[in-house]
Amino acid sequence: MKKVGRYTLTGRLGRGGMSTVYKARAPVTGRTVALKILKPRDDIFIDLVGEKRLKEIFVEEAKIMGEITHDHIAKIIDCDESDGTPFIILEYFAHSIGALIGEAYILEKPSRVMSINKAYSYLRQTLLGLERLHFAGIVHRDLKPYNLMITNDDRIKIIDFGLSRIRGEEKMAIPGMQVGSPYYAAPEQEQDPKNADERADLYSVGVMAYRLITGMLVSHKQDDIEPPSNRNSDVTGEWDAFLLKSIDRDPDKRFNSAQHMLLQLDGLYAEWKRQSQKSCTFIASDQAGADVAIRSLRSTPAFIKVQELRRTLELDSLMRPKAYVPHRFQYRSTVLLECLDTGLLWQRKAAGFMLTWDKAHEYIAYLNDRCWQGSDSWRLPTTEELHSLLRPPTRERDFCFDAYFAEEVHWIWSCDTCTGNMAWTVDIQESFFQELDKDGMASVCAVASLEKR
Question: What domains appear along the chain, each with residue ranges and CATH number?
């Protein structure tokens, strides 16, 4: 395997105009990290800016990130050179907002709509991170879903400061070069990037907010932008006003600071939550005393490609169930959930910590060695079994019904793989299937069949 400095590259994570990001292993500890190395995609950058200045700009990014300590800004671990080429070592994150919503290379394609609860949480954290950046005089200028990473404990981390401007200084002024990403860049940033201020970042947050809540992108070039409530019945006119204000073409009509936008978002969500809880309509349970015919699901691991999984589980193009099959559950204890229709027992609170796929198997062996809850037949669930847990992410689910699993359980490993390096997970909160790098982290919710207890 190729090495960069002391780090061993194990795969490529992404490539931009100026650099490439790899997954790598640190020496001695074997920790998985992200290695970002200066590698311009086009020689035009070298011709116009010069190799020396490109290196300076790259190292300046590390200095920007290194000077700021904040819960919602990614940390620099190391910065060094290999054969004269600078590289940065960052925390490795397997999850991002972009992957969560299924944003494709063709940006105009619809993405997954996120529950209001989750969208609010991520937007709030993003604004907190921006508040800290703007206080330091930094305008990010490239906020987009794939630059918002998600940690194992569900925190947002802002990454990629390669296009940022600090205290009004332009690092790389190339006439005609677009700064930022299509759709997410504010109109004034497209016209005059060196004079775009903090409100340009808030515009990007507004575009992301619209996409999280509706699954659609909007552009400042559109004559009319459809109110979000037309696309998502979970939101009201108050959300329309908030979102349309945040993406106004005129920066003077937007929120004037991250703090201002955050305060408005907090108030909006608090009222939405209050109204949602008031409107709950409970459905009487018919589980008690019923004779149940157990429906058998595949319990052995399988290698399943994307198209096969979509076909067998009847998933749409964004890996969500086309229809949700209702199942009856009852709580055996604070840690056990029984499905009356499938005869499965689930570990409700998961392992209590997230693990890689290999470590997930070790955890299952750990449970069985100790005969946890009287069983030595615990295993990782199959994708079929995980499918049986999913419910549509709606206000009713979030407020009117008890959650099956502990609040911190988000992604759950399956025993099924899709490539040599990837395994299937399910997002239990947003109800979709996702391929995940086996070095990534997800929860382990052990399952056992009742007849095997």
Answer: 3-91 (3.30.200.20), 95-278 (1.10.510.10), 306-452 (3.10.100)
Please report which residue ranges of 388-435 form alpha helices under DSSP H: 395-400
* Successive 10-residue mean pLDDT values, the chain, 453 residues: 91 85 94 92 68 84 86 92 93 95 89 95 98 93 94 94 69 56 90 88 97 94 91 93 96 96 97 87 45 77 98 96 91 94 95 96 98 97 96 84 88 97 96 96 96 55
Q: How far apart are CA 199 and CA 166, in angstroms?
A: 14
What is the spatial distance between Cα 223 and Cα 303, in angstroms, rounded to a whole number? Answer: 48
Neighbour-count burial of 423, counting CB atoms closer than 10 A to its CB (0-12 exposed, 13-18 middle, 19+ buried): buried
Q: Which residues have C-beta within 8 Å of that of residue 319, sequence separation ≥ 6? A: 102, 309, 310, 432, 433, 434
CB atoms within 10 A of CB 217: 19
Q: Locate 189 and state its tokens.
A: 């940033």
Is residue 354 within 8 A of residue 361, CB to CB? The reply is no
Q: Compute how many other C-beta atoms are within 10 angstroms of the C-beta atom of residue 416.
A: 23
Q: Is 218:225 a contact under the CB 8 Å cutoff?
A: yes
Write out the two tokens for 436. 């995940």
Residue with tokens 């991002």: 96
- Rounded to whole angstroms, how far apart are CA atoms 207 and 220? 10
* All residues at 6 or more sequence positions from 226 whose CB lies less than 8 Å from its CB, including other chains: none
